[in-house]
Design a protein that fits this description.
- The complex is a heterodimer of chains A (67) and B (659).
- Chain A is 82% helix and 0% strand.
- Chain A is mostly helical and 67 residues long.
- The longest helix of chain A is centred in the C-terminal third of the chain and has 26 residues.
- The termini of chain A are far apart.
- Chain B is of the alpha/beta class and 659 residues long.
- Chain B is 61% helix and 15% strand.
- In chain B, the strands form three sheets. Chain B has a six-stranded antiparallel beta sheet. In chain B, strands 8-12-13-3-14-15 form a six-stranded mixed beta sheet, sandwiched between helices.
- In chain B, strand 1 and strand 2 form a beta hairpin.
- The longest helix of chain B has 46 residues.
- Classes of the chains: A mainly alpha (67), B alpha/beta (659).
- The interface between A and B is large, with 36 and 37 residues.
Chain lengths: 67, 659
Amino acid sequence: MTPENELLDTIEELRKQKFPDVPAELVEQIATIERNFTENRPEAYKRIVQAIDTHLAVQASGKKAGG
Amino acid sequence: MLSIRSISLTDFGPFKGEQRIDFPADPGVSIIYGENMRGKTTLLNAIRYALFGKVMTRGATQVALHQIGNWETAKDHGKYGFKVVLEFENEGLKYELTREHRPRAGVTIPQTDIDYQQDCFLRKDGQVLGPDQRDSELARIMPETVSRFFLFDGELLQQYEELLRNESDMGRNIKEAIERILGVPVLTNGRTDLGELFKDAQKREAKAAQKNQKTQALGNQHEALLKQRDGLQEDTDRLKSDLATLRSSKASKEEELRKTERTKALLDERARLQDEIAKAENRLNEKQERRQELLTDVWKGLLNSRIRATREGLEQDLQKDSDTYQRALVSADINEKLRKALEDGQCSSCGQDLSATAKGRITALVSETLSNDARTHLEAKIQELKSRIAALKQSEATSNADVLQEVQDAIDELIVQKAAAEDRLSEVKDQTKDLDETELRKLYSDFERTVIDMGILQDGIKKQDEALKAINENISKVEAEMAKFADADLDTERTRKDLCEKLRSLFASAVDAYRERLRGRVEKDATALFVQLTSEPEYKALSINDSYGLTIVHQDGSVIPVRSAGAEHIVALSLMGALQQNAPLRGPIVMDSPFGRLDHVHTTKVVQALPSMANQVMLLVYDSELDPKQARNQLQGKLQKEYRIARRTARHSELEPIA
C-alpha cells in the first residue's frame, strides 16, 4: 500500500465505523485538499469551505427534489 | 517524486565561474569526491540555496549571503554576486529553478546582505511562473520543513538520538519534521480547519436563532458565549504560540549549550583551579608561619643531647639532695632529743646518766645532722634544681624536629599541588583566552529564563483550557435548548454544524490511528534496513517510541540502552530509509560526509543499501571516507555518475567528471 493510500485508508476505516452517514467522497476530497495545500493553509481552508458548501447545497437540493 | 537533473553554479563559494553537474534520469547513486575544504558542503548548500534561499553552517546556523560569492572573482575581476540553477523533474514535469544574488544598483562593493538583491524564478515546462505560484509550487514539491530528510549532513545524524528523550525540545522538533514528511499534517491541518469551520457553523446557528422570535434570547446568549469562548481561545492560542516559540528557542539554545559544553567545562575547571590555588596559598601561608615559629626554637635541637645530659645530671643531683633533705626531716626530731640529752647529761627516755663514751658518740651523731640553716639552703637548692630541670625539659620539647619535619613535608606537598594547579590553569587560560565569557554566561542565563517562562506559560495554558472546557459545556446546553425549536434556517445551520463536527471528530480520530500505523510501518522498515546495515548479528530489531525514536533490540529481547556514535549513525540512516519508504513526499537524498564515523564493514553495508533508500542518492565524500574502487565494485550498475572537486587554489575549486 502506498503512503497516500495508507492515509486515506485509515480515515475511511474510521468513517465507516464511527460516521457512516458522512459521505466518503467528501472526506477524501478534504484529505486531498489538505495534502495538496499542506504548505498553503489559507488556500486549503478556502477550498474545504467550498467543498462543504457544495456538498450541503447538493444535499439540500436533493431533499427538495425528493420532496 | 522530485528528481534533480543538474546543478549549475556561478561564483558560488569556491566554485569560481560557471560549473555544472548533470545527473542521469535513471535511479541510482552519484558520488562527488572532494577533500576537506574543497566545497562538498557548499554543493549541499547550493541545492539548499536554490530551493529555500538559505545557506547553513554545519551547526545549522544561517550564513550571511554576502559571504557566499567567490572571493577570487571579486578580487581579480571586481565582480560580486552568485547564482545557482537547479533543473529537476517532479510528477513527470520539467522545472528549472534559478536563484541569484547580485549587487543592488549603485553598490560597487557590497558589504552586507542589504547590498544585494535576490532574483528567483521558476520555469515549469518552459513557462515562467509568477512569484506566488513559484513559492506555492516549490513549497509543495520540497517543503523546507522536511528538507532535513533529503539534504543532510552526516555529522548531524546523532541529533536523531534526541528522539529517545521525550523531554527534549530538539527531539520534539525532529518529531514534528518526521510527521510532516509522513503526511500527518494532512490530518492535523484537517482537524484544525474543520474545527474552525465547526465554530463558524456555531456562529451561523446563533445568527439563525436570533432571527426567530422564539429562539432570539437563546441565540443572543449563544452568540455571547461564542464570543467569550473565541476570546479565551485567542488568548490560549497566543499562549500556545508563545510556548512553541519558546520551545523552538529552547531547542536551539540546547544545541548551542551542547556545543559550548567543552567551553563551559573549561570555564568551570578554570574557576575550580583558581579556587584550589587560593586555598593552597592560604594553607601554605599558615604552614609557613608555623614553620617560622618552629624555626625560632630549632637551634635548641642542636643542643638537645647536651641539654639532655645536663638535665639528667641535675636530676641526679636533685634526687641526691631530695634524699638528703628527706633524711634530714626524719631525723630532726631524734636530733632534738639527743641534743637535750647532751645538755641534761642523762637519757630523756630512761633517765640514766650519760657516760663519757655515750656523750662522745651522741656529740658525733648530732654534729653530723643538718642545721636549720643548712636545711633551708638545701630547700632552696632543690627548688632551683627543679626550675632548671623544667626549663631544660621545655627547651627539649620546643625543639621537636619531628614536628618541624611534618610541617615542612606539608609545605612541600602544597607547593607541588599549587604548581600543578597553576600549570593546568595556565593551559586552561590559554584555551579560553579568546572566549566571550559574557556571551556564554548570557546563553546559560537565557536558557534558564526560557525554561522558567515555559513553565509559566504551561500553567497559563492549563488554566485557559479549563475555562474553555467550562464555557463549551455552557454552549452545548444552550444549543440543546435551541434544538427543541423547529426552524428551517436553524435546521440548515445545525446540519452544517453537525457535519463539520463529525468531520472534525473523524480527522481527530484519524490522527491517532494514522500515527499508530505509521509507527508500526516505520519500525518494520527501519528494522529491515538496520538488520541489513549492522555488522552485529545479535542485534535483531529496532523498537520505536511515540516520538519515532529507535532503540536497538538484542536477539534475547532486551534493549541496548547505550550505543556508540557509529551505531547511532546506523540507526539514524535506518530511520531515514524507513521515512523515505513511508513518506507521501519523495525526493533525492543528498548526504554530506555520511561515513565519517563508520568503520569499513558498516561503510560497505551502507553503500550497498543506498540504492534501496531512495530513487536518487548523491554522496559528497572524501576518498579516505569511501574508496572509489570499493564504491564502484559495490554499486556496479547503480553507480550513475562520479565527479571530483579539484583544487585550483585555496579559493577556487572546479567540478570534474570522472571518466
